[in-house]
Design brief:
311 residues; mainly alpha; 0% strand; transmembrane helix; Permease of the drug/metabolite transporter (DMT) superfamily
């Protein structure tokens, strides 16, 4: 476990921070893309906040076990508020809204709305983190979001308006949380920030969980497929992906990290068509080209800027 933790959380001497961050981000958004399809299945058997609580319980236990293999890092008293805000606003409010949005609409539509995160993350990062809006970022965001729109437009499934509104709320709160994480992980280790924030979210979810279980009949919690799905959501889509996302934010700008978001609907639609029967059309390929092209343009533009600075 110690070797695995070191591999995830420390930069490889043979790779640049950006190169390693890009790998982390690709793994992260792919896991989050699969989350839409898995959560859509689980939501048919288990209430929303019960899923959220179990997801954070699994992730929290896994991350605490990893933390035990490392020297403890103390959070300064004046920074507690940031950990609480990340846990409450990001991991509790935003992720709960994401699950509700998926339940009230469909996996593809929810992932499309979530692909708008780059726009709001970049906008929040300008006043809070003093990051610059570059031409390459604008081109990359435009191409990637256009690709996401084309992909979901080809799916042809509608969604309830309330599901769309809830999903937009999720995007806004997650974007705000991302900017906070970028600031905090400049000072503290990403694993520590992620673990403590998830524990905050776990505590916030508990009261809602109790009410939900008391008022919801026929919870199919002990079905093998449901249990395995929740374990996947907790270990891969939460523990692993959140640590990698927060680590990436500590390595490169929030705006650059956000450009990988539109990969999510491409993964979600692919898996949705494979496992959930959500129909796809030829426009999927067109959208995928725009999304991948937008991300690659950003990566190559960043490398070119670094090369020109080194001359």
């Amino acid at each position: 476990m110690r070797d695995f933790t070191s591999f995830i959380l420390k930069e490889d001497d043979c790779m640049s921070n950006k190169g390693l961050a890009y790998i982390y981000l690709t793994i992260t958004v792919s896991a989050w893309g699969s989350l839409y399809v898995v959560s859509k299945f689980v939501l048919g058997h288990v209430p929303t906040f019960t899923i959220l609580f179990l997801r954070y319980l699994v992730a929290g236990i896994a991350l605490l076990l990893i933390l035990r293999t490392r020297e403890p890092e103390k959070i300064e008293r004046q920074d507690y508020k940031y950990i609480v805000m990340i846990g409450f606003v990001g991991y509790f409010l935003s992720v709960a809204a994401q699950l509700l949005g998926t339940k009230l609409s469909n996996a593809s539509l929810a992932s499309l709305i979530n692909s708008m995160n780059p726009v709001f993350i970049i906008l929040f990062a300008v006043p809070v983190l003093k990051e610059k809006i570059t031409v390459s970022k604008l081109i990359s965001v435009t191409a990637a979001v256009a690709g996401a729109y084309i992909i979901i437009g080809g799916v042809g499934n509608g969604g309830a308006m309330i599901g769309i509104i809830v999903s937009i709320f999720s995007v806004l709160t997650w974007s705000l949380m991302t900017v906070l994480v970028r600031r905090v992980t400049q000072k503290y280790d990403a694993l520590v920030v992620t673990t403590y924030s998830i524990l905050v979210a776990l505590a916030c979810t508990l009261p809602v969980l109790i009410y939900e279980l008391l008022t919801t009949p026929h919870v199919q919690l002990f079905d093998p497929a449901t249990i395995s799905s929740i374990l996947y959501m907790g270990l891969v889509c939460t523990a692993l992906s959140h640590v990698l996302w927060n680590k990436s934010l500590s390595m490169i700008e929030a705006g650059s990290c956000s450009l990988f978001y539109p990969l999510q609907p491409m993964v979600a639609v692919s898996l949705g068509g494979l496992f959930s029967g959500e129909k796809m059309s030829i426009t999927f390929l067109m959208g995928a080209v725009l999304i991948i092209g937008g991300v690659l343009f950003s990566v190559l533009a960043g490398r070119r800027r670094n090369y020109e600075k080194s001359l």
